[in-house]
Amino acid sequence: MAGLVAFIGGALTDMVWLVGAGTAGFLTGTGLLLPAALGLALLPRAGGSQ
Q1: SS3 13
Q2: Cα separations (Å) of 48 from 19, 30, 35, 42, 43?
Q3: Rounded CA gap, 31 and 7, in Å?
Q4: What per-residue confidence (pLDDT) applies to 30?
Q5: What is the distance between the alpha carbons of residues 48 and 42, in angstroms, rounded to a whole number?
Q6: 3-state secondary structure of 1
Q7: Which run of H or E residues covers position 50?
Q8: pLDDT given at position 13
Q9: HSE on the CB side for 23, CA within 13 Å?
Q10: For the purposes of burial, counting CB atoms within 10 Å of the CB of 7, is it exposed (0-12), middle (13-18) or buried (19 or more)?
Q11: What is the pTM of this model?
């Protein structure tokens, strides 16, 4: 019984860690990609208007 509880607890901890790491990675990736994508999208317009 104790082994089962430990296994479930370990699995839950791993899941929480993976979700947290995935969320942090996603936010970091979005934080880096979003400004770059906006910059690329706005650059031709700014260059064309000048």
Answers
A1: helix
A2: 43, 27, 20, 10, 8
A3: 36
A4: 81
A5: 10
A6: coil
A7: none
A8: 92
A9: 6
A10: exposed
A11: 0.48
pLDDT of residue 20: 87
Residue 18 has which token pair? Answer: 């993976």
DSSP symbols for 22-44: HHHHHHHHHHHHHHHHHHHHHHH
Q: Which two tokens stand for residue 28?
A: 């970091």
Specify the residue for token string 């104790």.
2
Tokens of 46: 């700014």
Amino acid in the structure at residue 14: D
pLDDT lower than 50: segments of the chain: none
